[in-house]
Amino acid sequence: MNTFIHYHTLDLRLHDSPSLHVAHQPNNPSTHFLPLYIFDPRQLDLSHLPNAPKSPSPHSLKSATHQDPSARYDPKQSRCSPLSRVGGFHSTSPYRLKFLLEAVFSLRESYRASGADMVFAYGLPEVILPKIVESLKTDGGKVEGIYAQREYTLEEISNYRRINNALNNEKVQFNDSKTLISPDHLPFNPESQTPDVYTEFRKKVEGLGIGLNEMLIKPLDTSEVKDGQVKYNGRIKPFPKIDVDKINLKDGQGGFISSDETIDSVYSKLVKPLFDNPPVGGWSSSSSDSRDTLPDLHSKSAIPFKGTELAALERADDYIGIPPEGKAGWKGGMKAKHYKETRNGLLGEGFSTKFSTWLSLGVLSPKVVGWRVGELLDAQGRDKEVWKNAYWILFELLWRDYFQYTLNPNSSLFNPDGFSSQISTYPQDLRPNPSEWHQANLEDPNDKARRWCEGRTGVPFIDANMRELVETGWMSNRGRQNVASFLTKDLYCDWRIGAEFFEMHLIDYDTCSNWGNWQYQAGVGNDPRSSRQFNPIKQANDYDVDNGFVRTWVTELEGVGDEYVQTPWLINDKSKLKNYPSKPIVELPSWKKHYPNQPSTRNRGKAKGNGKGPKGGKKGAE
Ligand code: FAD
């Protein structure tokens, strides 16, 4: 028996899987294939599982928050706790946990449907993996190799380093399945030469000299969907003989999740610590009702999907459409054909792709999305409107790649002054001064940052977005830009509180995209601009034209007429506000010209549906 181990991290899928591809090449000497997932106590509180591994305690939580706001993140010491550094938030919400478990458990189902199986372990990966290798080697067995997806973030890199240190002969080998453009296709060295500005990065990548479609790589053909089930596309190598019950883990080193334990059972154990110690703003009302079984989706969720690979592939079919078979033409894809016109929407599932959740867990391959969009563009010939719209999906996927590639081993992703500290040409007058920022005291109900977290700022457009985040685990890109600008530019709070709060709640949380975008909005990231400050009243006028979004989430304002629902502090009869704040937490002079009955608001209702254009990009004060 010679086993090929695939250690799944953020690549929870069968399709476009380099490991499945390599393991099944005719010259690959492996005889067996073992997929593995490890629940890590650095990321999740596992204390309710038997022989629970302890989550190391959070380091310098208080000092980073209250005593020394500029405390720097030590890149040598990766985070060792599932609580965040500045705000002490959990690393996940019940909803985020639900999506993770749906992804992991459905992956095991897919392996089983393909004639294989999968091992679920919990504990420190550097303890678990060597034990598995040792067990596979008893009775003369061999391990052909341990394969995993290359990651770009420090915690993940440190994880692999610790595993390699703990292994005797084997080393983890990497594949590049995370990004649309693999690092070896980039026209520069991503470790040292990624441009400081996105546009430069995009132009270099698109200018690979071969045109847009050639920039895209055909995904690997490693899966098929049959009878409503994702399966390996061929005959998978057998699952090795391994008796995990015989693997000897010491006290507090964790264990294995039994092969018949249900998703609900695992959820109920992992969710308990979250309910024992809820954060400011609490948890979604729909998840609070259900602690022993996976929560139902929130009825108003803009992302009414499961975290499974099947759901991801079906969404790609629905959104981008299905390539022709035989004589039939392109099927569907109407949503992608209007993407750029609708992408700044706020309500419903259709306005943007909603691929982010699956992309962040690697349930959906970015190369599959890119390739399919390329096929759609090809099929549309010269239809400029379709190109203008659907191409923009690639433009956004390149943003995702860009944020991955801006990281390097000394990255300042988590430091208060962000990437700005690494960019020598960063304008001196824009350099942030973290000691001037408001440091949150989350125990104080009137604290500015706490009111932001709880959706109680008194600015309905901001509060609606924050409530959507807590209730559903999701917020539109338009909303994210607005609430981030509000926290950092209007309330002048430390941006890291916002990034951590997002990390806890966003079901599509991705370290690079989240922290990179937060830096960008806070003015400490790539491409510095002092003007990147959103005016929430103008934004509400432009993007929540019929007030439907604010009315969905700020239900206290039902008695307030349409004219004032975005600026309720202007009405005389404050009793109509019920419990909603009668004054906004802050009121900026620049808002006033967008109040009702001002010259600039007379056109309200005729406003644009899109924000960023190919030339203007996503930038500037809006
Ligand atoms: P679409 O508009 O359909 O875009 C298609 C894909 O392109 C997305 O799925 C995503 O993978 C990528 N993409 C789009 N915009 C961006 C962007 N600005 N940066 C990076 N990738 C992008 N995205 C995350 O995936 N995870 C995060 O944790 C995250 N945190 C964010 C925090 C802030 C403060 C801001 C302003 C943005 C953040 N984004 C994050 C980026 C963006 O808001 C989401 O990717 C997008 O809203 C997801 O919805 P969608 O899949 O429908 O996107």
Automatic annotation (TrEMBL):
Cofactor: how and how many bound: Binds 1 FAD per subunit. Binds 1 5,10-methenyltetrahydrofolate (MTHF) per subunit.
Domain of life: Eukaryota
Composition bias type Basic residues, residue spans: 603-622
Protein name: Cryptochrome DASH
Natural source organism: Kwoniella mangroviensis CBS 10435
Keyword Flavoprotein: yes
GO biological process, one term: photoreactive repair
UniProt cross-references to NCBIfam families, sorted A to Z: crypto_DASH
Annotated Polar residues bias: 57-68
Region annotation (Disordered) ranges: 48-85, 588-622
An MF annotation (GO) of this entry: damaged DNA binding
The entry's keywords: Chromophore, FAD, Flavoprotein
Pfam families: DNA_photolyase (PF00875), FAD_binding_7 (PF03441)
